Structure to design on (418 residues):
């Protein structure tokens, strides 16, 4: 068992201590150190290029977290950035009225996404899912919501309830992914009052194995939504423009009434969308108020149009599936040849390495040791969140990562079988 030298992250730690005096928690939410391995992972990044990042101490990493999903191509994509810079320099981007690019992007959505007839563009995933819920409630004149998945930080769905009155989420009920019985049970009691069923079409629960839909699951959810005249919403914030250009709905062949997109649609620029049936979307004309000073800003529209152009032109998703599939297969062999309780789940573009739970909770120590070894080897993954394959991850990046995973597994094998 060879112990790898700990990284120097002294500047990150200093900035974090300074930050705690200025920002609640030093940095916000999921980027806080306790969501990684405290004392091992960098806290502040300096730069990124392609599939790699460099922290403020000069450590370089192959980055599989991809900014929690927006980076589908790579960091600092020159063609996208130049298009945005040109827009800012030549025409501007923040005005009292709207520039033409919203129409162009909405047309592109209509071309690519099965459910898309009309679209509303907002800024974040939470904006999109909350807009979809508001539209569904206005359209159906019902209140209750059935949910499955992570849908953001807004009052109706956030997991941490501090500062939120119970009445703001008391009509929201959770069902389990790939468990039609749990949904059917809820709907048998609340179906006549239910405005929407919202779920992630590909299962990615926090810190748990990724799940593809079992045969008949998505079809069953759609049948239930139709039975109760409930709006079916796919939360495609992570799967959109990653599983396919038309999202998981295109990939799995199930068309919802509404869908929410974000993250990969603009390779890091801040934009998200709700798209779907005209009759539901048109409640956004008068019945539902949706407005923000910054929603019409055109830099992210330009970035999204250029990102989609590159995705189409270079067959990016096909190549991600190919290289991700090879990587997935190699990692799977490494894990199958070990007996440390590691598990690989997911699909080629999105993967996660977890550890089987045990009564003594040794799996937590294994997880900590595993991800400590990876970060020290220059591989940036998150212990509680799945990873992504980006277009700019090279074959060398992926092969070196397989080697790092194999060595980390071997380290755990030695450490926990002594």
């Amino acid at each position: 068992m060879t112990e790898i030298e700990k990284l120097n992250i002294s500047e990150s730690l200093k900035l974090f201590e300074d930050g705690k005096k200025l920002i609640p928690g030093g940095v916000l939410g999921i980027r806080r150190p306790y969501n990684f391995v405290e004392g091992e992972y960098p806290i502040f990044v300096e730069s990124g290029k392609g599939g790699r990042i460099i922290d403020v101490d000069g450590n370089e990493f192959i980055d599989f977290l991809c900014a929690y999903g927006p980076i589908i191509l790579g960091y600092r994509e020159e063609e996208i950035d130049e298009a945005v810079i040109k827009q800012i320099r030549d025409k501007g981007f923040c005005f009292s009225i709207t520039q033409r690019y919203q129409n162009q992007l909405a047309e592109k959505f209509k071309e690519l996404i099965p459910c898309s007839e009309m679209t509303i563009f907002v800024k974040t995933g939470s904006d999109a899912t909350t807009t979809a819920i508001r539209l569904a409630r206005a359209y159906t004149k019902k209140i209750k919501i059935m949910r499955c998945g992570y849908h953001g930080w807004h009052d109706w769905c956030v997991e941490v309830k501090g500062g939120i009155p119970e009445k703001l989420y008391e009509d929201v009920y959770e069902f389990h992914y790939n468990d039609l019985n749990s949904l059917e049970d809820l709907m048998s009691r609340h179906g006549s009052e239910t405005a929407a069923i919202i779920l992630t079409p590909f299962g990615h629960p926090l810190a748990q194995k990724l799940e593809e839909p079992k045969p008949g699951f998505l079809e069953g959810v759609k049948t239930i939504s139709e039975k109760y005249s409930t709006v079916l919403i796919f939360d495609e914030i992570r799967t959109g423009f990653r599983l396919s250009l038309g999202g998981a709905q295109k990939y799995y062949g199930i068309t919802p009434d509404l869908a929410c997109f974000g993250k990969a649609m603009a390779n890091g620029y801040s934009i998200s969308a709700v798209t779907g049936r005209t009759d539901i979307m048109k409640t956004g004309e008068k019945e539902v108020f949706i407005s923000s000073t910054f929603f019409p800003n055109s830099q992210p529209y330009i970035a999204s149009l250029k990102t989609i152009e590159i995705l189409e032109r270079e067959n990016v998703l096909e190549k991600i599936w190919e290289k991700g599939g090879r990587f997935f297969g190699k990692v799977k062999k490494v894990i199958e040849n070990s007996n440390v309780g590691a598990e690989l789940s997911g699909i080629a573009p999105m993967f996660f390495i977890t550890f089987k739970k045990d009564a003594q909770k040794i799996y937590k120590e294994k997880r900590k040791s595993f991800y400590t070894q990876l970060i020290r080897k220059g591989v940036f993954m998150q212990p509680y969140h799945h990873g992504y394959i980006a277009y700019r991850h090279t074959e060398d990046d992926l092969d070196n990562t397989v080697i790092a995973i194999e060595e980390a597994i071997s380290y755990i094998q030695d450490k926990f079988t002594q």
Observations:
- The longest strand covers residues 194-199.
- The longest helix spans residues 395-416.
